[in-house]
Specification:
By secondary structure, the protein is α/β, with parallel strands linked by helices. 30% of the residues lie in helices and 26% in strands. Strands 3, 4, 5, 6, 7, 8, 9, 10, 11, 12 and 13 form an 11-stranded mixed β-sheet that branches. A two-stranded parallel sheet has the order 1-2. The longest helix has 31 residues, at 269-299. It is elongated and about 180 Å long.
């Protein structure tokens, strides 16, 4: 049985080899493809017979400003932060992604990751306690860098954002006039322009502008908005995402170094939550004290009113009478039996009609 199986396998291999040889004989040598010459001709010029005329591209130019932004995060971020990070990547064609960084690693490791990815700017999202989100923006490797607390995050997927823009288009950056008045805001403005502006003639970008990134300052915070430009009446419709950046510190180096500016109006989320807990505890203590005071008042003995003052209001005093003095002695009193006999006599006389 083993010999028969070996013979069959040998026959099959021989047949397959014969079929391959026949197919190779029937194949003709490949003809060399003729390369077509392409030249960019203007609209007025006429194209020759052998040359194909193609209109020149709108984005014809050299990519000189080679800004590359690394956008990634630490482990433990929420789903909303993940969607915000993906929205920033889609809006910025010059961005790159990387895997999440471990919590145990220190922040200066981000500089090495940016060097490996050939990036000179970085947006790093750091999550703490699964509820607080911090954002670092940095100029790698020499600095400066800034740390923000991210609040009021809304992503592109929410239905409130009705606008829409083409992917890869270049944005206009609109800054509040307050950015030019104070030095720390001027430094942040330069960082934002280098990070969020798409370089001209970038390979993944499109040569048109149809949306605006707005940075406004209110309540000592930076409010980020993204608007679509409508061509018909030049009005703006919000696209998203939207978030608020509460500045914490500005450092001289990348992810560290001496502190250039510290926000005096910043209140950490831990202290904010502690103040809320203390306020609720104070309210509870106040309610408990009110209840105890009410109980003490109920236990106190109330004064028992024995006589009502209003009872003698309508009583008028009677006129005084002179005392009667009897000068004569009273007569003898009749007994009850004599009285009964006299009554009987009278009734009999009435019946007989004698009286």
């Amino acid at each position: 049985m083993a010999a028969r199986g070996g013979k069959r396998a040998a026959e099959r291999s021989a047949q397959i080899k014969a079929k391959r040889a026949k197919l190779n004989k029937n194949k003709s040598p490949q003809t060399e493809r003729k390369t077509k010459t392409v030249s960019f001709a203007a609209d007025n010029e006429e194209a020759s017979a052998n040359v194909i005329s193609v209109p020149p591209p709108v984005s014809a130019g050299k990519w000189t400003n080679k800004e590359r932004v690394l956008v990634f995060s630490s482990r433990g971020i929420s789903f909303r932060t993940r969607h915000l990070m993906l929205d920033l990547k889609t809006m910025m064609p010059h961005s790159k992604a990387d895997s999440k960084m471990d919590r145990k690693d220190k922040l200066f490791v981000v500089n090495e990751v940016c060097e490996i990815k050939n990036c000179n700017k970085c947006i790093f999202f750091e999550a703490k306690k699964k509820q607080d989100l911090y954002m670092w923006i940095s100029n790698v490797p020499h600095g400066p860098s800034a740390k923000f607390l991210v609040q009021n995050v809304h992503t592109l997927a929410e239905l409130k954002m009705t606008g829409n823009c083409l992917k890869g288009s270049r944005p206009l950056l609109s800054f509040d006039p307050k950015f030019d008045k104070e030095p720390h805001y001027a430094l942040l403005k330069e960082l934002f322009t280098q990070i969020f502006s798409t370089p001209q003639y970038h390979p993944k970008s499109q040569p048109f502008v149809d949306h605006v990134f707005s940075f406004t300052i209110a309540d000592h915070r930076i409010w980020f908005r993204n608007y679509q430009i409508i061509e018909e009446d030049a009005s703006l419709v919000e696209i998203g995402p939207r978030f608020v950046l509460n500045l914490i510190k500005i450092f001289q180096g990348s992810f560290g170094g001496p502190t250039l500016y510290e926000n005096p109006h910043f209140q950490s989320p831990n202290t904010h939550r502690r103040m809320i807990r203390l306020a609720t505890a104070a309210k509870q203590k106040e309610r408990q004290m009110v209840k105890e005071i009410q109980k003490e008042k109920r236990k106190e003995e109330q004064e028992v009113i024995t006589q009502d003052v209003t009872d003698d209001v309508f009583e008028t005093p009677a006129e005084p009478k002179a005392p009667q003095v009897e000068l004569e002695a009273p007569g003898p009193r009749r007994s009850k039996k004599l009285r009964l006999s006299e009554l009987k006599k009278r009734t009999l006389m009435k019946r007989k009609g004698l009286r």
